[in-house]
Design goal:
Layout (H helix, E strand, L loop, with lengths): L2 H9 L2 H24 L8 H20 L19 H23 L3 H33 L7 H21 L3 H30 L3
Protein name: Ferritin-like domain-containing protein
Organism: Chryseobacterium pennae
């Protein structure tokens, strides 16, 4: 199922759409928590604080949008309230682990340095993905005349990507070479996630 078609199918069913919003909220929240976990005990930059705060706000905003469908739906992040919960929970976690292994091999970093490098490269990969995903989602929402909007998230994610590139430029002059490798890792994990969601949504047609 092509991504545009998959999202259209999701948005057209209230319960499934609520789970999709909740799944995105879960992932934004997981991203925010990972950013905070990567913080140095004392050397925390303003940009890192800003990113964590904005990702948490995105999680809150997406969760709140569920109320426009049905305020009683998806009140937690329990498995039954997420789409493809196992793949969803594994996505960011697997990306973090695989990226850390690669970065450690390439840069030979201390524990704190590795945390910061992981923050830079993993966040970059996620922002690249967000820059692709949210505009397609907004396009579907507009087509379906939905009350739900993600335009504010799109603008902030674009800003995040620019900020990540600035930080990566300071980290290494060859950052793009390594970022491309992380993007390949993310691409495989993202495809696994989308495949799991597609399989779950396809089952609805036979329910």
């Amino acid at each position: 199922m092509e991504f545009h078609h998959l999202l259209k199918r999701i948005v057209q069913d209230g319960n499934t759409h609520a789970k999709w919003l909740n799944t995105l909220s879960f992932m934004e929240n997981a991203g925010a928590r990972k950013i905070s976990k990567c913080e140095h005990p004392v050397m925390v930059t303003l940009i890192q604080l800003k990113h964590a705060a904005e990702e948490h706000r995105h999680a809150y905003y997406l969760k709140k949008q569920i109320g426009k469908i049905d305020a009683e739906l998806c009140k937690t992040y329990e498995n039954k309230e997420l789409l493809a919960p196992i793949a969803t929970r594994q996505y960011l976690h697997s990306l973090d682990i695989k990226a850390c292994r690669y970065l450690q091999d390439v840069f030979q970093l201390t524990k704190e340095e590795l945390k910061y490098a992981a923050y830079l490269f993993v966040t970059y990969a996620i922002e690249v993905r967000a820059d692709e995903l949210y505009p397609v989602y907004q396009e579907i929402l507009t087509e379906e005349s939905s009350k739900i909007m993600v335009k504010s998230i799109i603008l902030e994610e674009e800003g995040h990507l620019e900020e990540m590139i600035n930080q990566l430029n300071e980290f290494s002059e060859n950052w793009q070479l390594h970022a491309d490798h992380i993007l390949e890792i993310e691409k495989d994990l993202h495809q696994q996630w989308i495949n799991a969601i597609t399989e779950e949504v396809a089952q609805l047609d036979y329910a």
